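Entry: inositol oxygenase
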Amino acid sequence: MSIWECIELLNEFVDESDPDLDEPQIEHLLQTAEAIRKDYPEEDWLHLTGLIHDLGKVLLHPSFGQLPQWAVVGDTFPVGCAFDECNVHHKYFEENPDHLDPKYNTKLGEYSEGCGLENVLMSWGHDDYMYLVAKGNKTSLPLAGLFIIRYHSFYPLHKHGAYQYLMNEEDKENLKWLHVFNKYDLYSKSKVRIDVEKVKPYYLSLIEKCNLKRTTYTLEAVIMATLPTQSLFFSSSSYSHQARKFHASLQVPSSLRTKGICFPKTTRTDSDRRSQEDSNRPKGVVEGWRICGSRCQFIWSYFQGLQCRIRVAEDSGRVLSNESYSPNLKYDLYSKSKVRIDVEKVKPYYLSVNEKLNLGGLSLRQDDTATSFTQPPRPTTASEDEHLVSKIHAILDAVADRAEMHAIIGAQRNDWNHLFTNSINAISLTASLMAGISSIPVGEAAPHMLAFKLSSVILFTAATGMMLITSKIQPSQLAEEQRNATRLWEQLGRSIETTLALRAPTQRDVDEAMEKVLALDKAYPLPLLPGMLEKFPEIVEPTRWWPKIQPKQSPQAGGNGWSHELEGEMRGILRVLKAKDEQQYTTLGKLLLNMNKTLAISGPLLAGLAAISSGLIGSPALGPMPAFLGVIGGVLATAVHTLEHGGQVGMVFELFRNCAGYYRRLQEEIASNLGETDVQKRENGELFEMKVALQLGRSLSDLKGLASYASPLCEDEDIKEFAGKLF
């Protein structure tokens, strides 16, 4: 059967997992291919890849086995290693035997980091099927094209970035093309229908060029496609590594290799069709039996009509035949002989084979097998670890959302500062100009012009009001608060991700993360009113955005990395931080605060004076003084406002306060560890020393030079250097 014939055959189906449910498959294939062709006209191999990437869905057709949709479409995932939480319907993977198997439930499982996806067993789907077809035809498609065909349903990788540790350099290069392809897959964007007859010659020429003239399917591929469904009915979430490895390793004599259509057409009774339809249900529930994926029990039932016996080598799981196979499949599914089998007579033989192969037994999910297939599987109780992981991920999502919100608000408040500064300056200077013009005598007439006089009064009044508002809220300081909050939220998110990468989270991790979230919310509120931070506090204190610090326990033998020398070093750092670094930024903060107060009062005061003076221009009793004060007051108000908000004095004050908080937090971390008398309950000393060095911008050898300041003989006045070198 040709490729184009398969495309037309596939047009009879709609993939239930596709967003384009109203679009027939040929429309989706052509929309994808034509969209790629428009944007990448020179990459003809990519055009063809877009056309054939979903062609493996012909397995849904009766001519190719009439497999249920859940066995053909949907997301794919690796088996043989831990199931990532990015896998769709991740909670159902709890019932997969690999989930509890220590050989396969670790991050790498049986693989090694960077081993390459070519060496990773994937769950079965139309992707792998079409990949085998392309390989079997010895296609000239480049490796990137084959990569797209094989992994375009591997959404945990190319959508969420999971499993990247299994990729090698070649996979990473091919993944770039898969990301390009993804922009055109899934959705048929164009409303213009494709003229099939018009584009058909072009794609036929590509099929010819890439050596994909006919769909050649080997029986190995067919067995891999059908065993999980017709024999064992594996669902996507219960399909395990051992089952997939078993299917991938099947060996079939050359006499049984077929080309062309995979399945011989057979006449099925209505009951057979109903049985096939019953198999189209999720989670592998068939006639009350729940198949455990890592066991291929009763696998030989598929080959019963072939009159062969099967043994499995325990070390590799490969299936070898010790008797010849029948040259066709006519005995499959149907029992031709009228001679009844004596069950009790043959039962011991098959039980002994079952025990020899160590395949275990079936796991019944319901007591009444006659009715259990109509009942949903009983929910399993998630383990405490999984609950903790779910909680920490919920916190991580909230942290990411907070970081984005603060970034957006920070940008908006920074725009406020620029717009207010420029607008107020323009208004003040315009009002000063009008006040000056209104005082110019015109002949023998009155020495002012009413229109200019009133305009200057209105503009000065508006400028005064706007200056009062900006002096109160300090837009530059608001922007700095949000910038720092964004940095701290992102830092918290990275800290949680590091915890998840290194080990399973504990309840303490969850509690600490929640406390940090609440502390950050309190330190940097999102609303402007009410809840805005005080811009002119009576007492300047370092900003506090962290909860009470507890030492991170990392018990080890041999002192946990702590020594008397390290303790002395930390005490010296603690003293220098308190006496010099924190004190410096607190003092500078007070200086900037007083300066900002003066400017915040002077600007509106000068603008108000100018407004009053402009209203008195032309008064005979006052002479030229009102005009003088109006013009000079407006110019001075503009200068003061520019210095305050153009120079972002409020932002600098907030920066100093945050720097003091940075060093205050480091002091508390050091004091918390030193205050723990049980050394084994402290954070690892060597690791902690390195973290302190990084936060201070010093080398480890530099830190040792601060140990001398721990001596009680050393006075604060004798400390000449600062602990931090970052700022």
